[in-house]
Amino acid sequence: MSRRAVFSRILKCLRPYWGYLLFTVLSALVVVAGQLLSPFFAGRAVDYAVGRGEVDFARLKLCLVGVLVSSAAAMVCQWTMSVSNNRVAYRVLSDLRVQTFEKLGKLPLRYIDDRAYGDILGVVVSDAEQFADGLLLGFTQLFTGGLTIVGVLGIMLAIRWEIALVVFLITPLSLFVARFIASRTYRTFRRQAEARADATAYADEMIGGLKTVKAFGREEICRAQFREKNETLRKTSLTALFFSSTTNPTTRFVNSLVYAAVALSGGFLVIATGGAFSVGYLSTFLSYANQYTKPFNEISEVIAEFQNALACAGRIFALLSEEEEPPDGTNELGRAKGDVSFENVSFCYDPARPLIEHFYLRVGAGMRVAIVGPTGCGKTTLVNLIMRFYDVQEGSICVDGEDIRTLRRASLRENIGMVLQDTWLKKATVRENLCLGSPGCTEEEMIAAAKAAKAHSFIMRLPDGYDTVVDGEGTLSAGQKQLLCIARVMLCRPPMLILDEATSNIDTRTERIVQQAFAALMRGRTCFIVAHRLSTVENADLILVMREGKIVERGKHADLLARGGLYAALYRAQFSK
Length: 577
What we know:
alpha/beta, 19 helices, 4-stranded antiparallel β-sheet, Rossmann fold
């Protein structure tokens, strides 16, 4: 996204907090007024004490009181402005994190599949944090700095327009330098954010697969690859830092020119006017020259952070602008009977590599359908299409005669229980994981499901039983996690089931017991069973044999064996002596 588009999106994010922003502006006005009045009172105090025996103590006292009151008011309002800025920055940060997390739930799975998890995590966490930091600093400096510049010029014009004109003529030089450098720092910080996300994604990937890396002895190669990515990050960071660090000394040089011009022109005026423009006024102008140039210094100090914040915000808004899933349907499915049909379905992940083409299938309610075939033939893709994780590109899939694209996704998925080969448990208690799909279930129903899945016995051996916290990593074995996932689906008791290698991580003896539990669960339900182990599909009502996205054989176990085709070859490969 362009910097202008990013800035426009930031303003939209700030719109709900206009009240806080208004309070910030009012506080900034008081801060600037207090800071501008102090030099004025101090300059008048110089004139009231300019000579021996000519000190006007009454007026001098009033000037000192004015300095104290204006300074105290500026200090209090500076604090309230900081509090208001903090509220705005961190509420915007909270809103953006909520929006990005919600957006991830609305994005098609293709977006998640095509990107490293670490890259996405970097946008939600680190980029959002960098954006909030830059936004906080930018607000504080831009509000007060802008008002100070305008206020100082106004007072200078009111007191002596000749000196104000000198300052005004030098100001564009400082603005030009700041703009020239800022335009380049934005690009460098954008590259830095991308390099940081790349390094984060790689580290996340390697940590997640550390056992595999160690098993294959790839530690040194992975270290070398990470060093390369880290070196890229180092170079982009140094480039960004170089451009951002040139802003401050450059603007300070211009500011020194402003101070020297004020001192020189003011000195000439003191001499030329014969005291009409007094030494006190000159000291006031010199103080104002410092105050005028100070915002440029402060803004230049935070400009790097602000450019970094814009670059990070660009990545966040790019994610929020991604195209969401196709529109959800409006129809409610209710309790499905379980009739499923594929009508001329075509689908592929990559247009250059066709996968499923002109696929037809009709499954009656209560049928147990097994899908087998070589790796990559499209078995799991069929499952993804039924669940609407992906939408078909041609044709239609119907449940109970309704195109699933007309149904609400939640309504469709409530009717389908799914157990995958890759198990997933969140970091929570066993109880919370089991009740994930049935939050209103009773204790007795939960335990019954766990017993049916043959998980109750090992759960009771855990330190706190059903209240044991599991993290999905080293707390449980792969087989135990699989049993919990099976129990979770059994607790939902949906009218349709999808079992994608659901018993792949379970030992043979436990598998036979769980198959008996599955047989009871599947009775009267439409079931799709994706399996490589053909012993688990022998009792299916219909076996579909797929190759390259097409059904090449269909029938029952005995018929397919007698036919001597692909199914028989797969079966012999597993069970022949």
